[in-house]
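Pipeline run #58 for the internal structure catalog. This entry was flagged by the ingest filter as a single-chain record with no existing model, so it goes straight to prediction. Upstream metadata was stripped on purpose; only the residue string is passed forward. Reviewer on rotation: M.T. Logging verbosity set to normal.
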Amino acid sequence: QVQLVESGGGLVQAGGSLRLACAASGRTFSSFAMGWFRQGPGKEREFVAAVSWSGGSTYYADSVKGRFTISRDNAKNTVYLQMNSLKPEDTAVYYCGRGPRYGGTWYAVPRDYEYDSWGQGTQVTVSS
């Protein structure tokens, strides 16, 4: 079972930026799509962004499109989420997850049941 460890969360003012990182254990990192989800106070977990196995394709929720950028470094077994122009409604615990294996259904990446491993989460708080 892979271990995923998120970092980079914190408190930031509206309009600010944060960069989250998720480090994965094991040797099969590049064989899986990776995604970020978030869960705000009193809300269900929602999809944020996903990146394909090679990093060549990305998928974003409409709410973050144009503000967030997902990327990965397979040599470092790490996936990143660059968050710019943050808004108070971005306040949430952010989780990274291991998504479909290479050859799987790429367009299934917004569905959390397609992910088999999750990190412990990192808190992002955006003040107004």
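catalog note: The chain is about 0% helix and 50% strand.
catalog note: The two ends are 39 Å apart (CA to CA).
status: ready for reviewer M.T.
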